[in-house]
Specification:
It is a multi-pass membrane protein. This protein is mostly helical. The chain has 17 helices and no strands. The protein has helices at 16-51, 55-58, 60-83, 85-104, 109-137, 143-171, 175-179, 181-195, 208-229, 235-257, 271-301, 306-313, 315-331, 336-355, 363-390, 397-424, 434-449. The longest helix is centred in the first third of the chain and has 36 residues, at 16-51. It is globular.
Length: 467
């Protein structure tokens, strides 16, 4: 870990001591947003009971946060070029913290939902530009290690959220889950003011029309996926899908004409960047689908309790935490495309083993299979993210970061919705749906292999400070 904060002659990025403090800011900001979602899931029954609403309505406490956050990722990434990433990150932490206080003080579901939407906006501001700030803070020679650290933080947040939520609810009421974010968020804000580097703003206008189409496209998509994930496959979902497709067509049409596009389509002219985006989306489809499928498999078909189910999931994020930093470090030395492809192969092996898991399997038999999946995903994620970020000029890092965050969220949501369709259509045991995840992972491997062809896979040299 100490090598992450060493300074060598000719390094770009921040000097070692300043880098350490800036990384602490990014870690805190990411953990606040990631833990919030998984932690609040545990509290939904209590929120429904105390506010006197059905559980189906209380679900919106989580869903609205996720929809707003996902819909605003591209917009926030582009906006950061005008106001600077430093100011946007600080503003995001401020909005998130104050909205957490409002959520803790809410006395009705409607009031709580307003503040949760604002929390989603604050989270979007930090998550959309987090990876690009890692590239700004770390020297180019350590970009893979930085992406490994980012993967470690996200996996740690997902792993600790349910446990932290359960521990808090064991001693106090659900408003304290939101209140905990306030001092941590304000501390991160103060540190961000001190530590995050200043940078010049981009001159020119903002693509407001593109922003509106982007929000409509993503909001309709995530609302549709959320509805499908909860078993709704009616005409409302069809209308949302049509709305998303129509808005998407108008958005991309606008991007070709705008003088300062929200999403510069020139990013996708770099083939390795485009392939990394496709691979990432397919891998997150596989992960999102498997997470939900295993929840039903362990509880409904294997008879495990919710607590035991959570424990059976634990090896997945834990092995990501172990493998992520290692694979990121290796990606600074050898071809990241080869590393991420190897990780996908391990992930596919793990998914196949889960699809063949017998209903009477022992706990140990389940644990090693999820651990194999986590190991594969951990080896894949950091090198692929390094590949994505290193293939664009530094001036476009914020846009690439927004694409990375959006693709991750879209892939996970699509995977979750796929399980909803499977269950609604009564296509058989939910375990069979994991073969769909295997197919998505197989496609990801094929796309990733395209990057390892001799003409496409020279070792990636560190970017120069002038990129």
């Amino acid at each position: 870990m100490s090598r992450l904060f060493e300074t060598r002659p000719g390094d770009d990025g921040l000097p070692g001591p300043e880098r350490r403090l800036a990384v602490l800011v990014l870690v805190l900001g990411t953990l606040l947003a990631v833990i919030d979602t998984t932690m609040i899931n545990i509290a939904l029954p209590s929120i429904a009971h105390d506010l006197g609403v059905p559980g189906s309505r209380a679900v919106w406490v989580v869903s609205l946060f996720q929809v707003v956050c996902a819909a605003m990722l591209l917009l926030c990434a582009s906006l950061s070029e005008l106001v600077t990433r430093r100011r946007l990150y600080i503003a995001g932490l401020g909005v998130f913290s104050l909205s957490a206080l409002g959520s803790a003080l809410s006395t009705s579901l409607e009031m709580l939902l307003v503040f949760r939407a604002l929390q989603g906006l604050g989270a979007a501001a930090t998550l959309s530009i987090g990876p690009s700030l890692y590239r700004r803070i770390f020297p180019s020679r350590l970009l893979g290690s930085a992406m490994g650290l980012s993967a470690l933080v996200v996996a740690g947040g997902y792993a600790s959220g349910p446990t932290l939520g359960g521990a808090v609810l064991a001693i106090t009421d659900w408003p304290w889950l939101f209140a905990l974010n306030v001092p941590l968020g304000l501390a991160a804000l103060v540190l961000a003011w001190r530590a995050l580097p200043s940078e010049p703003r981009r001159k020119g206008g903002f693509d407001l029309q593109g922003a509106l189409w982007s929000v409509a496209m993503l909001a309709c998509f995530f609302l549709a996926m959320d509805a499908v994930g909860h078993g709704d496959t009616g005409w409302s979902v069809v209308a949302l899908v049509i709305g998303s497709l129509a808005s998407g067509w108008l958005f991309f049409r606008r991007q070709r004409r705008a003088s300062h596009p929200l999403l510069p389509l020139s990013l996708f002219r770099e083939r390795r960047f485009s392939l990394a985006v496709i691979v990432s989306g397919l891998a997150f489809v596989a992960q999102g689908l498997t997470f939900v499928a295993l929840s039903f498999l362990y509880q409904q078909e294997m008879g495990h309790s919710p607590l035991m189910t959570a424990w059976l999931f634990t090896p997945w994020p834990l092995t990501i935490m172990l493998a992520g930093p290692l694979s990121g470090r290796l990606a600074d030395r050898i071809n990241p495309a080869l590393l991420s492809t190897s990780g996908l192969v391990l992930l596919l092996c793990g998914l196949i083993s889960l699809s063949l898991l017998e209903s009477g399997a022992s706990v140990v038999d389940s644990l090693w299979r999820t651990a194999l999946c986590g190991l594969g995903f951990g080896l894949f994620q950091a090198p692929n993210n390094r590949e994505m970020m290193s293939q664009v000029p530094k001036a476009r890092s914020a846009n690439a970061s927004g694409v990375m965050s959006t693709v991750r969220t879209v892939g996970q949501s699509f995977g979750v919705a796929s399980v909803g369709v499977w269950l609604a259509a009564e296509l058989g045991s939910v375990q069979w749906s994991i073969w769909v995840a295997c197919s998505a992972c197989g496609l990801a491997i094929m796309a990733s292999l395209c990057r390892t062809a001799p003409t496409l896979s020279p070792a990636i040299a560190p970017s120069s400070p002038s990129d």
